[in-house]
Fold:
Amino acid sequence: MSSASPRAIPADLLPCSDHAMKKWVEIALGIITGIGGFLEVGSIATSAQAGSEFRYQLTWALALGVISLAFLMEMTGRLAAVSKRTYVDLLREHFGMRFFLVALIAVFVVSFMVLTAEIDGVSTALQMATGIAFQWWAIPVAVVGWLLLWRGTFGIVEQGTAMLGLVAISFAVGAVKAHPDWGALGGAFVPSRPTENPARYWYLAVSILGASISPYLYLFYSAGAVEDGWDREYLSVNRVTAGLGNLFGGTLALAVIGTAALVFAPAHVHIDKFEQIGSLFVSPLGRAGFWLFVATLCVTCFGATLEIALSIAYLIAQGFGWEWSEDLRPGRDSRFSVTYTISIVVAAIPAALGISALSLTNMSMVLSAASLPFTVIPLIALMNDGKVMGRHCNGWISNIALICISVLSIVLFFVSLPLQIKGGG
Amino acid sequence: MEPVDGVQLVHDVLDGCLTDRNGRKIGRVDALVLTLTDGEPLRVSAILIGGQVRAERVGKWMVRLRGAISSVLHHDREFGVSRVPFSAVRGIAETIDLDVDGATLPSGHLERWLGDHVTGHIPGSQGEKK
Structure:
C-alpha cells in the first residue's frame, strides 16, 4: 500500500488561475494518488486470504485499518503543513535521541521487510506475465526502481506510479460483476467471532491491519507534504486527500475480499502462493481479468517499492538532520541518495536468491502492525502541543480516534508474535 | 542574531535541525556545551554535532559499539565531531540557522566522502532532475 500527497500545481500550468480551481485539481490528484496507491502486495495478499478462508467476515478489519490510516495521514499531514517539519523531524526533536533510535530501528526493520515483499510482488507479477522465474526479475526491478529514484523527481515517483495504478479500478469492476451478497458484505463491517480456526482468523485480522497501517505510509505522506511545500492553506486539501483517497483505495481492497469470498471460498482454496491469486478475477472478467490482476500487482508493488525505499532514506536523513529531497540532484544529498540506493538493492537480494513466500509477506505485515506503538503514541503529544500546532491542535474527535488507534497499536504489539506462531502456518 | 524570546534549550534547541549559511541541512544539535566562569552567569557556549556525541546520549553500549567501529576504521574517538560556537546561531525557528560553512565541518565528512567516492562517479548525480 502506498500513500502520497497532492503536488502544488504552478498557477501558470493551470487552464484557470482561479484559486478554488487549483485546490480542486490538487484534491483530485490526491484522491487519484490514494486510489492508485492504496493496494500493494500486502493488502492484496491478506485480503485474498481473508476472503478465501473467512468469506466477508474480516471486512471489519479492513475498515478499521482504512479509518485508522486516514486519521494518521490527516494528522501527520496537518503536522507537516503547520510546523513545516516532517513527523520524523518532530519525533527526534521532541522525544530525544534514545526514543528516536528505538523508533528508527523498529520502523527501519519493518519497512525493509515490506520493501523486500514489494520487490518480490513485482517480480512475481512479471513471472506470471512472462513465464520467466521471478528471481531473474528481482535485480532488474531494483535497478529500474533505483534509476527512477536517481533521475526522477518526487512528483514523478508519486504521481507517475499512482496514475498507472488506476488500473486497480478493474478490481472494483470485477467485484461488482461477481455479484457479491451486499447484505452479508455490509453486515461484515461489524466484527464477529470466527466459527472455526480462531488463531488463523485473528492472525489474518492482524495481517490486514498491518498491511493497512504500515508506518512508512504516514511517514512518506508527511515527508511528501514538506517536499511539496504545504502550509496552512493545504489543511483542507490534506483532510480530503487523507479521507477520500484512503476510502477509495480501501474499497479496492474490499473488492479483493468480496471476490475471493465468491471465487475461492466455495472451492476451499487455501492461498499459499501469489500465483493462486492470479485467477481471482478470471471468473468475473474472463482472460482480461488475469492480465488486469497481473498489471495491478506489478504497478502497485512497484510504486510501493519506490515509496518505501524513499521512506527509509527519509527516516534516516530526517532523523540525523542530513540534507534530503527527492527533488535535489543526488550529488547534493549523497547520504540520502546512497541510503535509498543501498536499501533497494539489498532488498532485492532475497528474491534474487529465489526466496519468495507468501508467509514472509504475511510476517512483514504482522511485524508492521507490531511496530505501530513507536510511531502512533508520540502523535498524541505532538498533536496537542500548542507550540507545534498553534490553533491547529487536535480536536476531541481526532483525539478520541488517536487514543483508540494507540490502544489498538498496543494490543497489536502484544498479540502479533503469538498469533504469528499460532496462526501463521 | 534575530531577536528570539522564550527559547527553551531542550524543547527548542537540543535535537533541532541545523542549517548552514547556504541553507543546507548539516545535522542536528546532538549536545549543548554550558560554560560557567567565575563571576559570570551560566551560558551556552557551543553546539556539538557528531556520532560520538549521539552515542554518549544513547548509552554505554552505543559508545562501545561506536568505539569498535572507529578502531576498525582507524578513526580516533572524536572523529567527525563538530564544535560550533553558540555565537554562530543566527536564528531559531523550524531550523536553527548557523553562520558557518557546513562543507568544512568535521561532522560533514561522510557526506563529502560519499560525494567524492560514490555519487560523484555515478552518471546523473550532478545533472538536473527530470
Chain A has one domain: 11-423. Chain A touches chain B through 32 residues (CB under 8 Å). Residues 11-423 of chain A form a domain with the Amino acid/polyamine transporter I fold (CATH 1.20.1740.10). Residues 1-16 of chain A have pLDDT under 50 and may be disordered.
